[in-house]
Design brief:
Blueprint lengths: L1 H17 L8 E3 L2 E3 L4 E8 L7 E9 L2 E10 L6 H13 L6 E7 L4 H6 L24 H12 L6 E6 L5 E3 L2 E4 L5 H14 L3 E4 L13 H7 L3 E6 L8 H17 L14 E10 L4 E5 L6 E2 L6 E4 L5 E3 L7 E7 L3 E2 L4 E8 L5
Parallel strand pairs: 5-6, 5-7, 7-11, 9-10, 10-12
Antiparallel strand pairs: 1-2, 3-4, 4-6, 8-17, 9-11, 12-19, 13-15, 13-18, 14-17, 15-16, 17-19
Helix pairs in contact: 2-7, 5-7
Bound molecules: zinc ion (ZN).
Zinc ion (ZN) binds next to loops.
Length: 353
């Protein structure tokens, strides 16, 4: 890390002495260094510790005009494919000649999950890569990666978007999370971001950890450190659908317009469904799942969501909706074990925040 810092300092001096004097300088994340007007790829090098090292791909796009720094991070869950491919599209779609400021893109945090097709966790240490922030320099691979992302990206950005979607076993309708902090200017900015992104269901995520040493989630780590941040989710069950992909790509570009990083007008959502409460429906045993509802279905409290049978076909449970609301995601596959999430139901807020 010290070596990269030296390179960054050197290139600042070089641009000062040999080129026209400019307020801007090159910007380095991991092994990727981009001068103004450039796009550069490289890796965040997570060193080996009690388990193997890993290299997380990173892209720096340095705009021709000065401005703020935005981090776009995807693939903490490496089989939420739509969100990963959306970042791939953005890497080519963002033109440094049009850009004010800097965009840091991380298309795939959890490489082993992607390559081995393991949902939810990093198969190296069996940990979710969106639960261990701000990370630990001497922890397992997930914790060391989270530590590096906190130091190298979160601490150096102004805004952050964390991309997710339905995992291999989740049939999900698109939605965003907005986590107000009580800090007026930051909340105004993050709300502007989530509206500009344009997803039509927005979960108001209150009651999150506020201790900077135990922030748990990526976006919350940025948020607690004073950076406006949101989470966006689209895609489902291993399928990369062009509608879902467009939502994430166009939403990102619209948010960048709202933040004045790209020219043009954003297309904010005017009347989103604000969700004030989430209810998980969990399986109380193993079995085979036969759903009666789809992602996006509105259900009344008490309505049957589906049937669970044993391996002989005998009905052993009929889970029902605990609240009235919208199915944000429902288990997409027949397999269920005890404690699995059968569905998440969002309860619409009585008033927009
Ligand atoms: Zn995820």
């Amino acid at each position: 890390m010290r070596a990269f810092r030296f390179i960054a300092v050197f290139s600042v001096l070089a641009s000062f002495y040999c080129c026209s004097i400019s307020a801007q300088s090159s910007f380095t994340i991991g092994t990727a260094t981009a001068a103004p007007g450039q796009k550069s790829t490289g890796y965040l090098e997570v060193p080996a510790g009690i388990d193997p090292a890993t290299n997380i791909p990173v892209v720096v796009i340095n705009g021709v005009k000065p401005g703020k720094t935005l981090a776009l991070i995807s693939g903490a869950h490496g089989t939420e494919y739509t969100s990963i491919i959306a970042i791939e599209k953005l890497i080519s779609a963002i033109d440094p000649a049009q850009l004010s400021g800097i965009v840091i893109l991380v298309p795939l945090v959890n490489i082993q999950s992607f390559e081995l097709k393991v949902p939810h966790v990093n198969p190296v240490d069996n940990k979710s890569m969106n639960r261990f922030y701000p990370g630990k320099a001497d922890g397992t691979q997930t914790e060391r990666a989270s530590f590096l992302i906190t130091k190298q990206i979160i601490d150096r950005c102004d805004y952050l978007i964390d991309y997710h979607g339905g995992d291999l076993d989740e049939s999900l309708r698109p939605y965003a999370y907005w986590g107000p902090t009580g800090r007026e200017e930051q909340d105004r900015l993050s709300k502007q971001m989530v509206l500009a992104f344009g997803l039509d269901h927005i979960i108001i995520w209150r009651e999150r950890p506020t201790d900077p040493a135990a922030t748990r989630y990526l976006d919350n780590t940025a948020s607690v450190r004073g950076k406006a941040s949101i989470v966006v989710e689209a895609g489902h069950a291993g399928i990369v659908d062009s509608d879902d992909l467009s939502l994430l790509v166009n939403g990102s570009l619209s948010t960048m317009r709202a933040l004045k990083m790209l020219p043009g007008d954003p297309h904010p959502i005017e009347n989103p469904v604000w969700i004030e409460k989430l209810e998980d429906v969990l399986s109380d045993g193993p079995g085979i799942w036969y759903p009666l509802v789809k992602r996006g279905t509105y259900v009344s409290a008490g309505m049957k969501l589906g049937t669970i049978t044993d391996y002989f076909g005998k009905t052993i449970a009929e889970p029902r909706a605990p609240v009235t609301g919208v199915i944000l995601h429902v288990n997409a596959v027949p397999s269920l074990k005890k404690g699995d999430n059968i569905a998440d139901i969002g309860v619409p807020a009585a008033h927009a925040p």
